[in-house]
Amino acid sequence: MENKRELLIGDRMVGDGHPVFVIAEIGINHNGSVEIAKKIIDGAKAAGCDAVKFQKRTPEVCVPKDQWNIERDTPWGRMTYIDYRHKIEFGKKEYAEIDKFCKDIGILWFASCWDIDSVEFIEEFNPPIFKTSSASLTDTELLIRHAKLNKPVIISTGMSKMEEIENAVNDFGFENLIIAHSTSSYPCRYEELNLKMITTLSEKYPNTIIGYSGHETGLSPTWAAVALGAAIVERHITLDRAMWGTDQAASVEVNGFHRLVRNIRDIEIALGDGIKKVYKSELNSLEKLRKIKSSAVPD
């Protein structure tokens, strides 16, 4: 018998035979404001998302030193890039507030950790799942550290060759692994989404949960990803796509997330089980159009 692809995330089974796990990626769309973050979390919960996700970095580790002192315009005025990166990073106080808020309203939260110090920081809050960014796919040390958490981990595969994905899987191992197909352009053009990679990854790793992390505008590719077998989907969420920030244009507003989740649930029902049968609702048509007595059709 084929092994079933499933993992426990919090109190929810994810994978074959289970509802699609929908992640609202807040990332840095909060612009350093806990109040904005809470509004987005509220919106994600109301839309029916299973989890929200943040991004956590240690700026001095993740920002190349030659970019530290480059000045840029920000909502807080003109400042160096390293100062800006610190400005949008939440610390313990902010994440403790987010942790309590998510528990109070009943939604999971976790983060993409871009460096080992960030893994240690987020692990203090004991999230049920972690994620590594596409940028970290070739960071062997970071992958191995995530593997040691003994928790489900999503590895994102944007801007990568197949060989790099294979190496990352070898570094991490198969236990607790979830692979998310992704293309790392913001927003991503439809001709570069390559959704059939979901099928390719499913066939290559038949015992591993495959997901989709999308950065396109519009919702239809995410629905298509579900139809192709993605067990986890992730889209960036925002209060307003016109807000300041690099990820806002590739994000979905809260109203859009309501449509996204609602139609995912419809698609799950419509996909069925793949076993052909005659439904009771067809019996009248069968008797009328084929001249066959409905009593001759088994239940």
What does this structure look like?
- The chain is α/β, with parallel strands linked by helices.
- The chain has one domain (6-296): TIM Barrel.
- Helix content is 36%, strand content 21%.
- It is built from 11 helices and 13 strands.
- It has helices at 34-47, 59-62, 81-87, 92-105, 116-123, 140-147, 162-172, 197-204, 220-227, 254-271, 283-290, and strands at residues 6-9, 12-15, 21-27, 51-56, 71-74, 77-80, 108-113, 130-132, 153-156, 177-182, 209-214, 232-238, 252-253.
- The strands form 3 sheets. Strands 3, 4, 7, 8, 9, 10, 11, 12 and 13 form a 9-stranded parallel beta sheet that branches.
- α1 (34-47) runs parallel beside α4 (92-105).
- It is globular.
Topology:
Elements: E1 6-9, E2 12-15, E3 21-27, H1 34-47, E4 51-56, H2 59-62, E5 71-74, E6 77-80, H3 81-87, H4 92-105, E7 108-113, H5 116-123, E8 130-132, H6 140-147, E9 153-156, H7 162-172, E10 177-182, H8 197-204, E11 209-214, H9 220-227, E12 232-238, E13 252-253, H10 254-271, H11 283-290
Parallel strand pairs: 3-4, 3-12, 4-7, 8-9, 9-10, 10-11, 11-12, 12-13
Antiparallel strand pairs: 1-2, 5-6
How is this structure best summarized?
With 299 residues, the chain is of the alpha/beta class.
Shape: globular
CATH architecture title:
Alpha-Beta Barrel
Q: Structural class given helices, strands, pairing?
A: alpha/beta
Q: Determine the fraction of residues in helical runs and give it as a percent range.
A: 25-40%
How many structurally independent domains? 1
Quick one: CATH superfamily?
Aldolase class I
SSE string, helix = H, strand = E?
A: EEEHEHEEHHEHEHEHEHEHEEHH
User: What's the end-to-end separation, in Å?
Assistant: 27 Å
Detail the poorly predicted runs.
none
Hey, roughly how much beta strand do the residues contain?
15-25%
CATH class: Alpha Beta
Q: Count of DSSP helices?
A: 11
By CATH, the topology is TIM Barrel
Number of strands: 13
